[in-house]
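Hey Z.,

So I finally got round to the zinc ion thing we talked about over coffee. Here's the setup:
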Amino acid sequence: MTTFKNTILPCQKCGKLIAVKVRDFENGAIQCTHSGCGHINQLTQAFYDERILLGLPSFGQLVYQQDPALRYPLRVGVNTVGHSSSCTVHTERFMHDGKCYLSRKHCTIEVLFDKWEGKLRYTLQDGAIEPESGQYKNSLNGTLLNGYLLQNGDKLDILDQGLVCLGGVDIFRLEAYFIPPSMLQTYLMSKSFEPDETQ
Ligand SMILES: [Zn+2]
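And the result:
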């Protein structure tokens, strides 16, 4: 999830270049390797405070393609989708020629906050966890993402406008929520590590 890369930075004391590896960023500091210097260079990590989630007006929604008036808001964390009233995304029992292809708990959509990128991520799995057994139970008729049939254990990213097809019939389009840059800016954090903290 982090965006750190191996890189080269000038030493904050002697100005000579030092190679900085990802693990140095994780440690928060790197010692200058040039003889006669040895300065401990502090490295800072920039990220977005997760408290931004408390103020978001939306976490995105699913729009039913056969009737776009039907919109289902998502919440942060785990969303179960199906026609069971215990689902967090409780859909109608859509009938097609007298048959319903949707399972009571059909799929699981997780909404996560990527604090390094400052955006919401959406993942899709077929089926849902059964509260009684704690086991994952697949849907009866399967889940497709943009035409790809999810296999057992698949957990795929849904991008904005991605199409989730449940049971081969009912299609939902993801309208992702994008956090406004002006809001992100106010939650930008920078953590610098003291060498003592890592010991
Ligand atoms: Zn140096």
